[in-house]
Amino acid sequence: MTLSPPHMMQAIEITAPGGPEVLKPAEVTVPVPGHGQILIRVAYAGVNRPDALQRAGLYAPPPTASPLPGLEASGHVAAVGPGVTRWQLGDAVTALLPGGGYAEYALTHEDHALPIPEGVTLREAACLPETCFTVWSNISLRGGLQAGERFLVHGGSSGIGTTAIQLARAMGARVFATAGSPEKCAACVALGAERAINYRDEDFVAILRAAGGADVILDMVGGSYLPRNVKALADDGRLVQIAFLQGAKVEMNFAEVMTRRLTITGSTLRPQSDFAKARYARHLRKHVWPLVATGALRPVIDSEFALADAAEAHRRIETSDHIGKIVLKVS
Ligand SMILES: NC(=O)c1ccc[n+]([C@@H]2O[C@H](COP(=O)([O-])OP(=O)(O)OC[C@H]3O[C@@H](n4cnc5c(N)ncnc54)[C@H](OP(=O)(O)O)[C@@H]3O)[C@@H](O)[C@H]2O)c1
């Protein structure tokens, strides 16, 4: 079944591993949905730090994924593959993608698409999947965050951080966030953090310990933060690692992990199975989409670029000056 998508489309290719300049507009073939897949006519595509890592040659797409960048997009269903039961042509969706979002059409598994939450624009909806799948699966399912617990997120002004602050707050946690400027810290407080810590002037370990310790920490920094995170955890605390912007190798004493019953865990979303991602999507629909509909969780959008200006969007994300998400307008 199809609305007759064209044979060719505009997309952004990674022409070689390198800086933002390697992102170039190109005309490529429109993909055809396989069993259980839908083809989305992309309206907006979210830009995420992992896209920049992929462009630089540091984060290879899974073998079955599109080599084009782009892990999330909103738009309308333009074709469905055999066996698809959940969606019909023309349905408005926002979806987690295995890749390929920087294009006029993108494929995903039907179970990885979600309806547009009530009251949310397609532009906002494109900014939800990558951060909501990542944050929910890591703080709730992996970290076991409970109402009343103290939660610390590093990189509080990032796409991930702005989502984590709002979600943890809506889950009833007490939220602490670190960020690298007074402006970023103010944004974290406006989103619901009871305390934002400018890590250039203040020591997050001392602040968290004075508050009783963090029950859950969501960290993307790693490096020197690893032993400091362990110190900042309360007894029985959980450290969830989702990236290592400062490096993954460090020498540290693990004795406290044992004596204070700490858990160190982590995950990356993209290589997980279709089954696991479908499970996260069900959780989001049940637990997170209602929060988006009430406005308790809204994507914070820093800036918008045209698809053809994807290189500019990558320059912006790599300045780290942005607060929240960067989005590409595709059609
Ligand atoms: N595991 C997963 O499944 C998964 C999924 C999605 C994203 N991620 C990771 O989560 C992180 C956030 O993603 P995002 O798309 O939200 O990124 P983003 O908006 O670009 O945010 C990254 C933030 O990290 C902070 N930062 C701290 N140390 C840094 C360093 N050494 N280099 C650069 N930035 C540093 C910066 O804020 P300050 O100025 O405050 O330092 C920056 O704004 C990325 O590392 C990404 O790879 C992981």
From TrEMBL:
What Gene Ontology molecular function terms does this protein carry?
Answer: NADPH binding; oxidoreductase activity, acting on NAD(P)H
Family annotation (Gene3D superfamilies): Medium-chain alcohol dehydrogenases, catalytic domain, NAD(P)-binding Rossmann-like Domain
Give the domain of life. Answer: Bacteria
Q: Which SUPFAM superfamilies match?
A: GroES-like, NAD(P)-binding Rossmann-fold domains
Per the database record, which ranges form the Enoyl reductase (ER) domain?
Answer: 18-328
Q: By its UniProt entry, which SMART domains does this protein fall under?
A: PKS_ER (SM00829)
Keyword check for Oxidoreductase: yes
Q: Which UniProt keywords apply?
A: NADP, Oxidoreductase
NCBIfam families hit by this protein: quinone_pig3
Please report the name of this protein according to its UniProt entry.
NAD(P)H-quinone oxidoreductase
Q: Provide the species name.
A: Gemmobacter fulvus
